[in-house]
Backbone:
């Protein structure tokens, strides 16, 4: 499935760092990451909360704009190898200068420069979504939102919320989302992964988002599923992530097909691919095996993803041609 052009909407930039890249940075900086890797060199992920600890430990190696420039190039090269032609990546000022606006501008400039180079070299287009970390709290999220609002534009087009869904509620972050909305940023929010279907309903009601990160546990409330379908809310589904973290026992048990059959706009993403031993091509292969999806289904999902992308019309038209759309 690597030959099919793909659109990815849910990718954490730091979480997509190849393990070898992070190990290399740790060696360069003499940072001890013992316990973060398995003997085979892959990330040592267990349940979701252990994953967060490993993730945040790996991020300690990313200390300068140059580190993020190199990271962005490495991540986009990997994505392009799977056939991704357009990707949106979550960016966290928490990890890029500690939410200081001056420092954040430098980090963002380095990331955008790398994205432009990757577009030239690998044929992949990237846009950024600023994402505060939920379990860091609402006050830090406000600082993150101000960073996002001050740098919104062609490259930085969205605002979201990641982290531990069981901490606080979407309503606690309303100010940050209002700030981002007023700056013209498009909105998404992680929900319906660990927080259950109510977390999806809360995010839509309290934050006014048009996309939900994951959102798959909405399937536990069919009235909510039907409302999501009717309102056109898009779900950024990450099946491999959900299976790897034990939310579902297998791809066949994953609700993405049931959601699609009920008219929900579903998309496919990898979340934090090296942590979950996946790629976009592997996601496609496993979904094809589980549900018998063919090129027509995947093509339709790619177009749904592009329609839901947080980029301008010119970019959508250009990427649409790569998906086979007629002028």
Residues:
């Amino acid at each position: 499935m690597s030959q099919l052009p793909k659109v990815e909407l849910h990718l954490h930039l730091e979480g997509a760092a190849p393990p070898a890249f992070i190990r290399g940075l740790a060696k360069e900086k003499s940072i001890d990451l013992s316990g973060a890797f398995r003997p085979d060199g892959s990330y040592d992920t267990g349940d979701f909360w252990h994953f967060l600890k490993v993730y945040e430990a790996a991020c300690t190696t990313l200390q300068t704009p140059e580190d993020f420039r190199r990271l962005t190039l490495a991540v986009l090269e990997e994505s392009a190898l799977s056939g991704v032609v357009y990707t949106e990546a979550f960016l966290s000022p928490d990890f890029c200068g500690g939410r200081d606006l001056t420092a954040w501008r430098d980090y963002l400039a380095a990331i955008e420069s790398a994205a432009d180079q990757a577009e030239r070299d690998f044929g992949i287009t990237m846009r950024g979504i600023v994402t505060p970390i939920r379990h860091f709290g609402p006050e830090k999220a406000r600082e993150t939102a101000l960073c996002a609002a001050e740098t919104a534009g062609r490259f930085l087009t969205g605002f979201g919320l990641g982290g531990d869904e069981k901490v606080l509620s979407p309503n606690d972050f309303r100010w940050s989302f209002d700030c981002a909305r007023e700056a013209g940023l498009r909105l998404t929010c992680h929900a319906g992964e660990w927080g259950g279907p109510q977390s999806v309903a809360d995010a839509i009601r309290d934050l006014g988002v048009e996309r939900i990160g994951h959102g798959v546990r909405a399937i536990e409330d069919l009235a909510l599923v039907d409302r999501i379908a009717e309102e056109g809310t898009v779900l950024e589904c990450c099946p491999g992530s959900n299976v790897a973290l034990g939310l579902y026992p297998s791809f066949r048990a994953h609700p993405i097909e049931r959601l699609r059959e009920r008219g929900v706009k579903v998309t496919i993403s990898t979340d934090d691919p090296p942590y979950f031993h996946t790629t976009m091509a592997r996601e496609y292969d496993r979904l094809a095996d589980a549900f018998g999806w063919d090129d027509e289904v995947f093509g339709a999902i790619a177009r749904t993803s592009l329609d839901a992308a947080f980029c301008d019309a010119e970019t959508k038209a250009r990427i649409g041609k790569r998906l086979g759309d007629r002028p």
